[in-house]
Every structure is written in structure tokens, then in C-alpha cells.
Structure prediction request, 195 residues.
Amino acid sequence: MIAFNHWIKNSFLLIIIFYFVGCSQLTSINMYSTDEEIRLGRQYSFQIEKQLQIINDPFINEYINEIGQRLVSVSQRKNLKYTFKVVNDPAINAFAIPGGFCYVNLGLIMFADTESELASVIGHEIGHVVGEHGMENMTKQNIIGIAGALALGSSPSFGEEFMASLIQTGIITNYGRAAELEADKFGIQQMHDAG
Prediction:
């Protein structure tokens, strides 16, 4: 009987895990408050900035910050203090992490022909923060981690190692199609409203 109960419990937990793994389009599942998001975002940004080379040129930083803050001023989440930093990386990319920490690669800045092109990408990244996509991903991963730990009979760890693994595997910034479309929508709306 004990073995059967153990099998039932593990089967139920595996169903939960597979449900959340298979629900990459699942949205609006966030168990974190805004204060927790900001605290975690600060921790992530500290870890990220140890790995990336941030450019400290006041001219380029002010330029990117001005574009970002103009978009933030018309966003649906003005309650966050957004930061915009330039990464010395030739890749044409930008990303944002929870709490309003946004990073724009130098490669993107050099590639963009117009300020509007640059603003569209930055607006998209702000859209991920507005949509709380990183926090939704973290919530899903926590649920999967808890279920997996329960199935294995151990307790989950949510310390620095867990955060580092989320960053390294791209869990926080790897979004499904629905989140990408929502970020596009928010970004376009911000660009329209900012003029």
C-alpha cells in the first residue's frame, strides 16, 4: 500500500511537471510581488554584470537611457525604476530582466539605421518587463522545481545557485510566442504614445 501511495504521489507530481513544461504559452502566472521582482532583478543584474562588459561611455549611455525613459514614461508599469545599460557585445541583441533592468548590445546600436529602429527593440524589451514575462517564467520554474523535488523526496533550493541556473539556461529571458507577441504589442503602443 505504501509503494502504491508513493507511485500515485509521484505520478501526480509528474503530471504537474509535464503540464507546466508543456504550457509555454501559459501566461499570467506570477507568484511574486513587485518588491520581490525588484529585489530579484537587482540580484540578477549584479550576476549578469559580472559576466558582461558594460560600457561606461556617458554619451552612449545617456542616449540609450533617454530613449528608454521616454518609452517607460508612457508604459503600463511606470512604478519601476528602469535602468538601461550598454553591453560591449557585437551581437545584434537586447534583453530585459525582471525589475526593469534593460541591456542593449553595442552591436544593435551600430546596426540600427534610425533611432526609431532602436526604440522599437528597446520598447519590445520594456514590454517583457511590463508583461512580467520573466517573473511568469520564474514562477513556472519554481512550480516545476518544487514538484520535482517532492517527487524525488528532497527539498528545493532557491538560493544563488538556483538564480544562476535560471540566468544561465535563459529561463528568465526565454519567452514563448505569446509573450513575444505581447511584448511587441506593448512596445508598439509605447512607441505610438511616446510620439
